[in-house]
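Cross-check.
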Amino acid sequence: MPFGLGTGSESELNPPFLLVALLAGLWILDMLLRGDIRLAPSRTTLPIIAFLIVTILAFGVGQLPWFVTNPAPLRAQLGGVAIYILSMLAFLLVGNQVLDLGNSSD
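Predicted model, tokenized:
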């Protein structure tokens, strides 16, 4: 049964996209409510946060009227940025929520 949330354009938001957004939002909200904002110590945390900042800065600079030749619609740009941000949040979410990868042979 195909399901998607309409966006008013020709594309829809599919369940995995919505689920990752929901889980990441709940994880961030939980950290804020507890007052304990920490990320798991990992060699990948700093590069993913740097990539997240660069993605947001690139989106912001891309809105400046420097290149006038056929710009992409704002909806398309927001969709692309959302894919990047949610991918990075999913990476951080799993790294901070999954505490044990023990092999259970039950």
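The chain has a mean pLDDT of 81. The first strand starts at residue 5 and ends at 6. Passed to J.P. for a second look.
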